[in-house]
Amino acid sequence: MEAAGERGARPDCGCKGIRSCLLCEGPAQAAPPPQKNDNFVYCPATGLAVGEPHSEFAGWAFPFPGVFLLEDFINEDEESKMVQLMDRDDWKLSQSGRRKQDYGPKVNFKKHKLKAGGFLGLPSFSQELVKRMEAYSVLEGFFPVEQCNLDYLPERGSAINPHFDDEWLWGERLVSLNLLSRTVLSMSCDSEDSLRLFTTLNQGGKKSNHFGFPRTSQNHEPNNCTPLSGFSNAEREISYASPTRLIPFKDATVAIHLTRRSLLVLYGAARYEWKHAIYRKHVESRRICITFRELSAEFSMGGEQEELGKELLEIALAFQGKPV
């Protein structure tokens, strides 16, 4: 039997290298990829990562900037029509028990090469999604040039290991629409630097979930908010008002709970400093994730590959296929 690190892509599951799923692990399943237990949970109302009640960090919290979470971005009827349209096209096998549909340029990330040839634009049903995103300030000027649909199934052991998205081609904002079932996006950081926590046991020793700091745009008011703005001031305020402690970044893992039909944007620190993952245990039933990516500065106005970026953008925004 081949060692996991030597295994090529398998025709029945698409896994290769160290990746695996329930299909290729076989009857005597190998140990699944590491699945950490998240010890903090992201609170959309405050923009804080709050210690899980049964963890050693219960009663502690820290600002977690770079997340915009919007529930019910689409309705049930829209979701159903989108899934029907996606299922009319072929799903290609991908690693770790996933299936995928890619709409974007052909890219070799290791060699930093890409081709626009063969790219016909984003699916037509995405036109309304992109237009709707413009209503929120965090997505102002967001023009995606790639859409990746990922299909997760528990019976395949679908998952995606902790990773950073590419920075050479893709820009700061990663936008994902979560369909069909809820899940948890697990955030982790490898840095040995210290993370400052503050206790939520304040106001005379009573636990409080109200911090009095700028709220995120979870109020869903379009174009009048800057998500997580002012958290530098909030952090200074809490450091004086509450007891603090230091822990290594790598000891904190943050769960972002994604409800069905919710829209998630990762940017700033959450994009570049924290890895994100979906573990098997958080895929309860079929789940489809639609991820949109924008161009990096290198392919934008004034960048070294501005002309190629302009070509990709024109193709992407032309859209294709049949509308919903």
From TrEMBL:
Q: Which GO terms describe its biological process?
A: actomyosin structure organization; cleavage furrow ingression; demethylation; positive regulation of gene expression, epigenetic
- Give GO MF terms, alphabetically: actin binding; broad specificity oxidative DNA demethylase activity
Ranges in a coiled coil: none
| Name of this chain's protein | AlkB homolog 4, lysine demethylase
GO cellular component entries: contractile ring; midbody
Cofactor(s) required for function per UniProt: Fe(2+)
